[in-house]
Amino acid sequence: MILPETGRGTVRQRANGGGGRALRKSAVYTARKLRRSMTLPESVLWQQLRGKKLGFKVRRQHPIGPYVVDFFAGESRLVIEVDGEAHNRADRPLRDEMRDSYLREQSFRVLRIAAVDVLNNLSGVLESIAAEATDPLHRPSDGPPPRAGEDL
Prior knowledge:
It is a single chain. This protein is α+β, with helices and mostly antiparallel strands. It has a domain of 92 residues: VSR Endonuclease (Endonuclease, Chain A). The chain is built from five helices and four strands. A four-stranded mixed β-sheet has the order 1-2-3-4, sandwiched between helices. The relative contact order is 0.12.
């Protein structure tokens, strides 16, 4: 029995990170690129969210469908978007609304936070994120929410 030399196995490595088909989607490449070039408010917020510092896991620059969201708390299906000044210009408000609609259709909740709030009131931002993630209005284990006209 002849063993291959050290470092030379029979498994062929793929360029650009390899992995399965799901990891080779363009949204994954975009997410990886965005992780390397986060804005200052995103970086400041990430330092406070990473490592379950608020009691729940948060991912950064996470792909969901055709979009890459800034932060994602999977247990509570909460998407956290940090909006800078550019989100108020040109067609960005319309694009943001279309994105939010898509995410809500997929049963995600979206929390938009102004970048200036992250820089000026980080503790308040963290409190609102923690409150939204740990105490959502609807708990799936309680069954579907009541419809209009139904008693609570």
